[in-house]
């Protein structure tokens, strides 16, 4: 099992290298330069050229890429932001906990809401308790996240005035972003759980458990659900990884200074070191989350653990 | 056992995340704004005001940025020798008076002796000299002080600035230079601009700064004009205007720049006071007289006559802007008048000039680049259809200003649509029309126009000390520039502001100063 973990950790390195090179070229190929964006249209051309030189932007592209890769992989130095001139890692370190919290609350909400409803829907297949959640989940999956976020703001912040419209300085500030980000994913969780449960409750061992006289509740929650959760764990982990960097719309709407906001702001002003630092960290976090998901499999399913041990 | 250990580790991780989001402990210094509304009595209802910034703050260093978001903060934190009002009248700030030598090259400023920086240091001539020298090396501020030869300390509160030549707009330009504390700047080093240093002299000081999220200000109790009526100001970065509007309507923000699409709804709401504030910001199109078919003056005339400014105003700015027939606002900019040559909407004349140019059945003038910020795409689309209505075809191509501006300055464009905010002297127009200024998009190169004459007139206007003679020079220059039919002024932007009905707000052209605000 440890061999597997180490192998997976080592595999992350070429992934991060690939991501770094890809993002670097994407940023380089986009028009504009950092000095023009930082200084604004009113700055003289001489000042723009001088700042670009100061930022090292006048060096050849491959030289900059090489020196960046060496600094990151050998020294852990992501360089300084073109905008603030402060180390990129400082901005990222401040943003990560906020994004982690928002993503964690959202995924918990999605799982707590989606999984039980999915179980219910599967157990009561073809009834109203199945039809209503299924249709609702289709509707929620199709909803644009921005629209949902705006409607929640309009209702709870403006009309009812019971929740703040921006910021996450208090626990109340997390409620709307959690629902806004988590609700569409709750629909996904519900559908995956339903599908997985339907397959499991038709299995031979579940029929055997019923035949032996076990209570229906015990059959569902103790026998069927555990096996049904395996694919749901994978989906939950993937969703969490997506939430970490993909909550840009939510972060922008609720003025949350997370990693997604930092990334988008940096892209707009062509702050390449910050963009690359953010994508590097996001790629690393996603890879680690997926590794944890795979390891959870071993905890939940002894068959997989035995396979790892071989 | 291993499973239990794993589960305990997961629970520990979850608890650490949850505990990490607990509300902050109260500030032990007691300097945080209360924001609450006490009732009754003659005392003001609140001691704080909440505002929004539409973008991140790039720096607290006034010598490195002139972006709108940053300036909004700087106007509260920093000051210059003078403040200039909407009608170009100077009001003393860190300088009480000044003299100008007979030849107009030496400005001697007598500074006030009771001004302090936010860090408690007294404001002296050394700080003024340092600030101007810093500006002279700054790419952003150097255009305002490019004419300065040297800055010298005469005594602890007197500064002499010698210009390379007589330059009358210098005083108006000098108000753009913030006086900062030399000691604080040197101590902070590279971190000046990203940390709180107390280097300003304005009525508010920074007490909390995170450029990505929030900046908190507190009234400076030792401000020489007296402490501001509102003690605290909190600026929150809110890049999404829809959610910012909701925050304003729900009372979480006290003052907001309302999106034009929501103006009717907000201005009719009795809970708020609203005002369309005029600005000198001009949205325009520029036709390159050295490019392709636009070298033909009649084609440029045809384009000018095809532009219906009222329609563009309605479609791009909800009718809230002021249609412009000159690039420099005749009501606010010294040297600009409404009496100079201008084009008005006339599709018939547009077609006449097209025919005269040899294209009675229409022509394709090529590409028009436009900045994709704000309402400029709508301006571009409207202009595209107005030109098509008179037989002029074109392709409109959008991009970010920062990506396009270098090419524009090199003359590598056919036509462009953009905007700029002029300060209060006609001489500012050199940035966009002088052959000798690197930021200018119109240098008259490779054309039959006399670029040397344009430069000579600008220099003459700047050197002239008599205001009436300056106006005559600029009138002649404006008639010429307008007559080349290169710049197509579209409209002067108005800023739709709204605020809490209990808040007393004063607004200047282009900006505001919290010092003049108060709560009922």
Helical residue percent of chain A? over 70%
- Average pLDDT score of chain B: 90
Termini of chain B, distance in Å? 67 Å
Beta-sheet strand percentage of chain A?
Answer: under 5%
Spans of chain A of 5+ residues with little confidence (pLDDT < 50)? none
Global structural class of chain B: alpha+beta
> What's the architecture of the largest domain in chain A in CATH terms?
Orthogonal Bundle
How many runs of DSSP E, i.e. beta strands of chain B? 19
Order of helices and strands of chain A: HHHHHHHHHHHHHH
Description:
- The complex is a heterodimer of chains A (310) and B (520).
- By secondary structure, chain A is an all-alpha fold.
- Chain A has two domains: 2-75, no CATH class; 95-308, Orthogonal Bundle (MetI-like fold).
- Chain A is 78% helix and 0% strand.
- Chain A has helices at 2-29, 34-39, 45-54, 61-75, 88-123, 128-142, 145-159, 175-200, 204-211, 216-246, 248-253, 259-268, 272-300, 302-309.
- In chain A, helix 6 crosses helix 8, helix 9 (204-211) runs antiparallel to helix 10 and helix 10 (216-246) packs antiparallel against helix 13.
- The longest helix of chain A is centred in the middle third of the chain and has 36 residues, at 88-123.
- Chain A is flat.
- The radius of gyration of chain B is 26 Å and the shape is globular.
- In chain B, strands 11, 12, 13, 14, 15, 16 and 17 form a seven-stranded mixed β-sheet that branches. In chain B, strands 1-10-9-8 form a four-stranded mixed β-sheet, with helices on one face. In chain B, strands 4-5-7-6 form a four-stranded antiparallel β-sheet, covered by helices on one side.
- By secondary structure, chain B is an alpha+beta fold.
- In chain B, a hairpin with a 2-residue loop joins strand 6 and strand 7 (158-163).
- The chains are: A mainly alpha (310), B alpha+beta (520).
- At the A-B interface, helix 2, helix 3, helix 5, helix 7 and helix 12 of A face helix 1, helix 7 and helix 13 of B.
């Amino acid at each position: 099992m440890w061999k597997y973990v180490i192998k997976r950790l080592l595999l992350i390195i070429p992934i991060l290298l690939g991501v770094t090179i890809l993002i670097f070229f994407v940023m380089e190929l986009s028009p504009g330069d950092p000095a023009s964006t930082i200084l604004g249209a009113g700055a003289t051309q001489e000042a723009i050229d001088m700042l670009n030189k100061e930022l090292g932007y006048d060096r050849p592209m491959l030289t900059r890429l090489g020196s960046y890769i060496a600094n990151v992989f050998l020294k852990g130095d992501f360089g300084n932001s073109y905008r603030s001139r402060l180390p990129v890692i400082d901005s990222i370190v401040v943003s990560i906990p906020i994004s982690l919290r928002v993503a964690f609350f959202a995924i918990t909400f999605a799982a707590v809401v989606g999984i039980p409803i999915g179980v219910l829907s599967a157990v009561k297949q073809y009834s109203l308790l199945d039809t209503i959640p299924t249709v609702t989940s289709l509707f929620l999956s199709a909803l644009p996240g921005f629209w949902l976020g705006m409607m929640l703001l309009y209702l709870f912040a403006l009309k009812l005035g019971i929740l703040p419209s921006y910021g996450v300085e208090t626990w109340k500030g997390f409620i709307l972003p959690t629902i806004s980000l988590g609700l569409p994913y709750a629909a996904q969780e519900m559908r995956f759980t339903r599908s997985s449960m339907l397959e499991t409750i038709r299995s031979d061992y579940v029929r055997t458990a019923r035949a032996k006289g076990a209570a229906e509740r015990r059959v569902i929650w103790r026998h069927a659900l555990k096996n049904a959760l395996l694919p749901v764990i994978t989906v939950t982990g993937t969703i969490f990884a997506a939430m970490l960097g993909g909550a840009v719309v939510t972060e922008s709407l609720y003025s949350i200074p997370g990693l997604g906001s930092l990334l988008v702001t940096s892209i707009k002003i062509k702050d390449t070191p910050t963009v690359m630092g953010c994508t590097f960290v996001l790629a690393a976090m996603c890879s680690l989350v997926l590794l944890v998901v795979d390891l959870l499999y071993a905890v939940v399913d002894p068959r997989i653990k035995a396979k790892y041990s071989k | 056992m291993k499973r239990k250990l794993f589960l305990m580790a997961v629970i520990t991780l979850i608890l650490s995340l949850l505990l990490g989001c607990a509300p902050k402990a109260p500030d032990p210094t007691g300097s945080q704004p209360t924001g609450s509304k006490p009732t009754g009595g003659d005392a003001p209802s609140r001691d704080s005001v909440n505002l929004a910034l539409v973008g991140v703050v790039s720096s607290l260093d006034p010598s490195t940025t002139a972006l709108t978001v940053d300036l909004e903060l700087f106007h509260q934190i920093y000051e210059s020798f003078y403040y200039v009002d909407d009608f170009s009248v100077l009001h003393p700030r860190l300088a009480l008076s000044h003299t100008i030598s007979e030849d107009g090259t030496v400005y001697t400023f007598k500074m006030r002796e009771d001004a302090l920086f936010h860090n408690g240091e007294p404001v002296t001539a050394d700080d003024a000299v340092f600030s101007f020298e810093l500006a002279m090396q700054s790419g952003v501020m150097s255009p305002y002080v490019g004419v300065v030869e040297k800055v010298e300390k005469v005594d602890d509160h007197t500064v002499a600035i010698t210009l390379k030549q007589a330059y009358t707009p210098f005083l108006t330009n000098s108000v753009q230079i913030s006086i900062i504390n030399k000691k604080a700047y040197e101590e902070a080093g590279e971190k000046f601009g990203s940390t709180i240093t107390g280097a300003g002299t304005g009525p508010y000081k920074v007490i909390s700064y995170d450029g990505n999220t929030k900046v908190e200000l507190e009234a400076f109790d030792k401000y020489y004009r007296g402490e501001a009526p509102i003690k605290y100001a909190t600026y929150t970065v809110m890049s999404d205007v829809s959610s910012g509007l909701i925050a304003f309507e729900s009372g979480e923000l006290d003052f907001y720049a309302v999106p034009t699409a929501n103006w009717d709804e907000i201005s009719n709401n009795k809970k708020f006071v609203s005002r369309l504030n005029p600005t000198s910001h001009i949205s325009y199109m520029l036709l390159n007289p050295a490019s392709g078919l636009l070298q033909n003056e009649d084609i440029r005339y045809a384009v000018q006559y095809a532009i219906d400014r009222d329609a563009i105003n309605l479609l791009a700015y909800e009718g809230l802007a002021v249609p412009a027939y000159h690039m420099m606002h005749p009501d606010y900019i010294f040297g600009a008048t409404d009496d100079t040559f201008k084009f008005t909407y006339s599709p018939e004349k547009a077609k006449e000039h097209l025919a005269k140019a040899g294209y009675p059945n229409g022509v394709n003038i090529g590409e028009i680049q436009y900045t994709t910020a704000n309402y400029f795409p709508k301006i571009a689309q409207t202009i595209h259809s107005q030109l098509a209505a008179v037989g002029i075809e074109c392709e409109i191509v959008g991009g970010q200003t920062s990506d396009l501006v270098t090419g524009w300055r090199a003359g590598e464009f056919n036509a462009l649509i953009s905007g700029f905010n002029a300060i209060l002297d006609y001489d500012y127009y050199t940035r966009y029309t002088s052959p000798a200024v690197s930021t200018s998009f119109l240098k008259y190169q490779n054309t039959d126009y006399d670029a040397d004459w344009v430069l000579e007139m600008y220099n003459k206007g700047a050197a002239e000390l008599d205001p009436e003679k300056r106006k005559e020079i600029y009138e002649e220059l404006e008639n010429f520039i307008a007559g080349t039919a290169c710049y197509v002024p579209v409209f002067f932007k108005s800023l739709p502001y709204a605020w809490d009905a209990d808040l007393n707000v004063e607004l200047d052209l282009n900006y505001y100063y919290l010092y003049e605000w108060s709560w009922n």
